Amino acid sequence: MKEILIRLLKKFGYRLTKAPITLNGLKVEHDFLSRHNWILKYGIETIIDIGANKGQFAARFRVLFPDAWIYSFEPIPEVYDQLCKRFELDTKFQAFNLGLGKHSGEIDFFQNEFTDSSSALPMKKLHKENFPRTSNEKKIQIKIERLDEIMKSIVSSSPMLIKIDVQGFEEMVILGGKDTLIKASVVIVEVSFYELYENQVFFKTIYEHMLSLAFSYHGNYEQLVSPVDGCVLQADAIFIKENV
């Protein structure tokens, strides 16, 4: 009977999907845990979330690693406030209202109306053509620091996971954080295959940086596909430390 029902639904363009489940107060896909077995085995104790936005990544990985310390970096003041509010009851969470880069100081930052697309780099036409809702932005000043310098004041333990999602500014974060990155077991970093932001680097450059730090590429965690022609614009590339 079940197979007959499924065939009938498919015939009329419908399909059965399992309902989301709730883990640690967060609704996730029914297969969330099984899809993350690859990283659960590392027993992550410290998570560095660079480009935290409202804490989407941190919330999902808090489900996976309930006892890990999470350190999140978000430069936009009002988004930082939302991030802090989301984790106000989490005693092993700390947020920093700043960006990370190759040098310390202050820089111009392009705050997008769709805050996920905000960047230290000007947005290219291709990005706006694919995602029209990102057309409006304003320039603000933000403080940036080097990851290696910040980590001197942070108590962290291994194994460590570092996530970098800063809309084209990833290379600058890496260059300012090599001493920290080399201590990580897993790094998830956003890479681009098309120029969505001015003067950004592409996958090959990020790959070479990570290779030089003794990481190997292990595929993509997620991908951003163009709604215009279906090409892969960006991906969250997984790099794992060799011999971990």
Automatic annotation (TrEMBL):
<dbReference type="InterPro" id="IPR029063">
    <property type="entry name" value="SAM-dependent_MTases_sf"/>
</dbReference>
<protein>
    <submittedName>
        <fullName>FkbM family methyltransferase</fullName>
    </submittedName>
</protein>
<dbReference type="GO" id="GO:0032259">
    <property type="term" value="P:methylation"/>
</dbReference>
<feature type="domain" description="Methyltransferase FkbM">
    <location>
        <begin position="49"/>
        <end position="217"/>
    </location>
</feature>
<keyword id="KW-0489">Methyltransferase</keyword>
<keyword id="KW-0808">Transferase</keyword>
<dbReference type="InterPro" id="IPR006342">
    <property type="entry name" value="FkbM_mtfrase"/>
</dbReference>
<dbReference type="InterPro" id="IPR053188">
    <property type="entry name" value="FkbM_Methyltransferase"/>
</dbReference>
<dbReference type="Pfam" id="PF05050">
    <property type="entry name" value="Methyltransf_21"/>
</dbReference>
<dbReference type="GO" id="GO:0008171">
    <property type="term" value="F:O-methyltransferase activity"/>
</dbReference>
